[in-house]
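Okay, is this right?
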Amino acid sequence: LSAVCGALLTVVVYGTASRVTAPLPAAGAAAWYALSPLAVREAHFAVTDTMMALLTALAALAAIRVVEAPADWRRHLLA
């Protein structure tokens, strides 16, 4: 479960970075996270830090989506 959360966190990092920059630097940010020794170690040893980081990143991405389109906040939070 921890490894799956780590892989999903890489996707969330790409999604968040692509909102503020071009696709190539966003892919670089996702690759930087995916290859970082701490992220690999935490996902490998099945600690709760990876899941908490995923939930925090998802909350931040939801907040960004609400700020970008405040009129559609219900749709963003339910999607």
In short: The mean pLDDT is 83. Helices lie at 2-18, 23-35, 37-44, 49-68, 73-78.
